[in-house]
Amino acid sequence: MAHRPLACVILAAGKGTRMKSDLPKVLHRVAGRPMVGHVLAAVKALDPDHVVVVVGPGMDSVAAAVAPYPTAVQLEQRGTADAVRAAFGLLEGFTGDVIVLYGDTPLVTPDTLRALVQARRQAADPAVVVLGMRPDDPGAYGRLILNARGGLEKIVEYLDASEQERAVGLCNAGLMAFDGARMVELIGSVGNVNAKSEYYLTDVVQIARRAGMACAVVEAAPAEVVGVNSRAELAEVERLLQRRLRKAAMDNGATLIDPDSIFLSADTRLGRDVVVGPGCFFGAGVTVGDRVEIKPYCHLEGVRIDSGAVIGPFARLRPGAEIGADAHIGNFVEVKNAVIEAGAKANHLSYIGDARVGARANIGAGTITCNYDGFTKSRTEIGAGAFIGSNSALVAPVVIGEGAIVGAGSVVTMAVEADALVVARGSQKAYAGWARRFRERKQNEKAKKA
Fold first, then answer.
1. 353 is in an annotated binding site
2. How remote is the C-alpha of 162 from its chain's centroid?
3. Residue 216 CA neighbour count, 13 Å, CB half
4. Any binding-site annotation on 172?
5. What is the pLDDT of residues 330-359, one digit of tens each?
6. In the beta sheet, which residues pair with residue 145?
7. pLDDT exceeding 70 applies to what percent of the chain?
8. Rg of the chain over all Cα atoms, to the nearest angstrom
9. Cα dist. 293→264, 283, 311, 328, 405 in Å?
10. CB atoms within 10 A of CB 283
C-alpha cells in the first residue's frame, strides 16, 4: 500500500485562566513533563510527516518547549475551528490525513491516534472521524449522535440537546481526524452564529453530512481523554498517569512494594527484578539497571544506576550521578555529578559531589567532598580500593591514590599517593582532672547564687 502522508495539529493557544498561573497551561507538568510534551510524544510514535503546534500571541515559552516543531499563531481566541485555521499556512497543499489534538489532553496514547487514522482510511472514506468516549457520568459533554448505519450524524452540545439526545452515553472527546483534501473547505465553512460568536470545530460534522460526506466515530477510554483546565484536574491527570506508569513498570518486571506511594517520571526506566521501596521519587532522567534495590524514601533525578546496586534508604541522587554495578549508596548519602564505580560503598551520612570514587573504594560515615570554594566547582578523584575514614573532608581539587587510607577525621588538601596512609588532624591533648575541677567550680558558683 502506498504511503499516505499524515499531519498532526496540536492546539495549545489556551490561556488557562482557571489555572491561575503565569505559566501557559500546556507547560504545566505531569509526571515531570509538560502536558504538551506528552501529546508530542504520542504523536511522534506515529512518525507523522508534519506537526504544527498552534499557540497564542506572546507564547514564546511554548514555542521553545515544542521546538523543533513549528508553531502557528492564533492571533485571537475565536474558537477551536479558528485555531485549526491558523495552522493552514504551514500545511498549504497538504492532502493527507490530519489529526487535531489538544495540548492539555496529555493522556492520549499512540494506539488511539492510530485507530483514528485507520478509521479515516476505511472504505467508507469519512471526511471526519471524531474520538468518542462513554464516561460513567456524561454530564455536560457534547453527545455524538449516530445514524442507522452506525456513522456519525452530528455532535450536539449538551445545552442544545433534547432529552432523548441527552440520554445518549456516547460523548465527544474532542480529538478529530480529517481528510486533508477536504479539511480546508469544511473548516472554512464553519460560522460563528452562537452565544460566544466563536468558530467551533464540532460544527464540521453537520457541514460534512449536509454535503453528503460520511463521518465516523472511534471510541477511547474516558481516562485517556481527560483534559486539564484547573489545578484540581491537573492533579487528577497526574494520578491517572502515575497509575499507568506504575503498571507499566510492574508489567516489565519491576517490584513496587507500595505502588501508590511511588512517583515516577514519564521517562523513568526500571530494569528487570528491580525492587523499589515505599515513598521513592523518580525525577526526570532516571535509568535503573537489572536487580537494583532502591530502599524506601529515596529521591533520584538525572541518574544512571547499574545492575545489582543497592540504594538507600533515604538517599538522594542528583543529576549527573552514575552508580556502578553492585555499588552501595546508603542512608542519608547525597551524590551529585559523581561516578561511583563498581562495588564502591558509601553507606552512611556522606556528600559526594563532583567526584569519581574508584571501584571497591569505601567512603566512611560523615565524609564530604568539599567541591565548592564560593566561585568554582572542583573535582575529587578517589582511586580504586581506597578507604576514606569517617568524618573526613576531602578539599577539592584533590586526588586520593588507589588503595590509600585516609584516617578518620582528616582534612585532606593535598594529593595522597597510592597505598599510603594519611592522617591530617590536630594532635590530641589530655588534661588530667580538668573535667572534675570544672564541675566542682560550676557547682560552687550555683550554690553561692542560691
1. no
2. 42
3. 19
4. yes
5. 999 999 999 999 999 999 999 999 999 999
6. 154
7. 100
8. 31
9. 16, 17, 6, 10, 29
10. 19
Asked if pLDDT for residue 326 goes beyond 70, the answer is: yes
233 belongs to an annotated ligand binding site: no
Predicted confidence (pLDDT) per residue in 360-384, tens digit? 999 999 999 999 999 999 999 999 9
Cβ(375)–Cβ(357) below 8 Å? no
| 8 Å CB contact between 31 and 65 | no
Cell numbers placing 353: 559531589
- Is 362 among the annotated ligand-binding positions? yes
- Confidence at residue 287, expressed as pLDDT on a 0 to 100 scale: 98
Phi and psi of 388, rounded to 5°? -105, 115
Report CA-CA distances (Å) from 119 to 110, 115, 139, 179, 219: 14, 6, 27, 11, 11
Q: Does 3 qualify as catalytic in the annotation?
A: no
Using CA atoms, how far apart are residues 381 and 419, in angstroms rounded to an integer?
A: 15
Distance CA 239, CA 263 (A): 10
The C-alpha cell of 395 is what? 578539599
Nearest in space to 179 (alpha carbons), one of 357, 329, 6, 349: 6
Question: Per the residue annotation, which of 38, 299, 328, 348 is the catalytic one?
Answer: 348
Cβ–Cβ < 8 Å for 10, 53: yes
Q: What CA–CA distance (Å, rounded) separates 443 from 436?
A: 11
CB-CB contact of 312 with 330 (8 Å)? yes
Cα 264 to Cα 201, 260, 278, 301: the distances in Å are 35, 10, 12, 10
Helix (H, G, I), strand (E, B) or coil at 202: helix
Q: How many helices (H) and strands (E) does the chain have?
A: 9, 35
The residue written with cell numbers 512494594 in the block is 257
Are 120 and 144 in contact, with CB atoms under 8 Å apart?
A: no
* Strand intervals (E) in 109-208: 128-133, 143-146, 152-156, 171-179
* Cα–Cα nearest to 116, from 104, 128, 133: 128
Per the listing, cell 530494569 goes with 271
